[in-house]
Amino acid sequence: xxxxxxxxxxxALLLAAPAYTLGVRDGQIAWRGAAPDGWHLTGxxxxxxxxxxxxxxxxxxxxxxxxxxxxxxxxDFCS
Length: 79
Hints:
It contains 3 helices and 4 strands, in the order H-E-E-E-H-E-H. It is an alpha+beta fold and about 80 residues long.
């Protein structure tokens, strides 16, 4: 007999995990934490990114499951 509940459990755990979002607000790279405390502007201009693909990805919004993943992305985009 197959365990049909495993995919549902995996999806539930994924949806319950905290999410961090990296995006663009007011022309600046910004992030939002798992708690609904609003956007935090980094002071780095999104237009200053050299790669058009990076600018496009940020305008769509990038979601990260952990604070560590968000931190790595912030270091990549803002340095």
